[in-house]
Specification:
The chain is mainly α. It has 13 helices and no strands. α3 runs parallel beside α6, α3 packs parallel to α8 and α10 crosses α11. The longest helix is centred in the C-terminal third of the chain and has 32 residues. It is globular and about 65 Å long. Bound molecules: protoporphyrin IX containing FE.
């Protein structure tokens, strides 16, 4: 059968996946579903790209890593920008169908956890919110046990003569990445002597800033939409989300900026 736009992209299937729960349908629920599904598709792409970043960094492929981080950084900007659309939904409108969400919450986004874990922001305490028996939950658990982008960044730095302390290398896979002064000294040296590597470090900083921006914009969206209400996932809501604001995934890149 000849492929067409609709068959290649599986349009009938795709367009049948937006099922509103409200009855009669509340106007804004379709937006709410589509925006979350769009995010999940972008998360899927980011995971695909970050797997490539890990390969590029481990192999010392500078140009590959630059090209891929540039793409990831750009996707991050789209993710941040998309929240504007959801902010056109008023608190009253959200309230009209919020009860229908039951206990479903962004807390249960296994791909978002994969995203955090692959980067090196490993936090086992959030695993309790996902269904670890499901295939998607299993994938998130698997990410906890894989080397992170930060681990492969160490490979890359080592390739360029930076000493990576053995304590960093021997840490358990489930431990979150931590800042380290020896790594920072090596990074500083490369930043100031290797303009080509500096391009990669700047892109990684852009990306890191982007994921922090997403957290900030999400908290503000939540605050303007539900205020001090608790989350459907059972957390305190805004107060809980505020705790992960300003969490950087590449802390060593931030720690040296005053020296540059
Ligand atoms: C009206 C819109 C939204 C509201 C009111 C909202 C509310 C919340 C709340 C209260 C939490 C904390 C967990 C809980 O107790 O439920 C949360 C977490 C989360 N939400 Fe949203 N959210 C909204 C839109 C979105 C969108 C569009 C995404 C895109 C994927 C998203 C992704 C997430 C993720 C990934 C978490 C976990 C964050 C973490 O653990 O740091 N949310 N959300």
């Amino acid at each position: 059968m000849t492929l067409t736009y609709n068959t290649y992209l599986k349009m009938p299937e795709l367009l049948s996946l937006q099922k509103v729960q409200s009855d009669p349908p509340e106007h804004d629920e379709l937006l709410f579903i589509i925006i979350h599904q769009a995010y999940e598709l972008w998360f899927k792409l980011l995971l695909h790209e970050l797997e490539k970043v890990r390969r590029d960094l481990s192999a010392g492929d500078l140009y590959g890593a630059i090209a891929t981080f540039k793409r990831c950084r750009t996707v991050m900007k789209v993710l941040v920008g998309q929240l504007d659309i959801l902010e056109t939904m008023t608190p009253m409108s959200f309230t009209s169908f919020r009860d229908r969400l039951d206990t479903s919450s962004g807390f249960q986004s296994t791909q978002f956890r994969e995203f955090e874990f692959i980067l090196g922001y490993k936090r086992e305490d959030v695993v309790k919110y996902i269904d670890v028996e499901s295939p998607l939950g299993q994938r998130a658990i698997q990410r906890l046990d894989e080397p992170s982008v930060v681990d492969t960044f160490y490979d890359f730095l080592e390739h360029h003569g930076v000493t990576i302390p053995t304590e960093l290398r021997s840490r358990g896979r489930r431990e979150p990445a931590v800042p380290d002064e020896t790594v920072q000294d090596g990074l500083f040296e490369l930043y100031t002597t290797r303009d080509d590597l500096g391009i990669l470090f700047e892109l990684m900083t852009d990306f890191d800033e982007g994921q922090q921006e997403w957290r900030y914009r999400h908290v503000k969206l939540v605050e303007r939409t539900i205020g001090a209400k608790k989350g459907t996932g059972g957390s305190l809501g805004v107060d809980f989300l505020k705790r992960s604001l300003f969490t950087s995934v590449f802390p060593d890149l931030w720690a040296i900026r005053h020296r540059l």
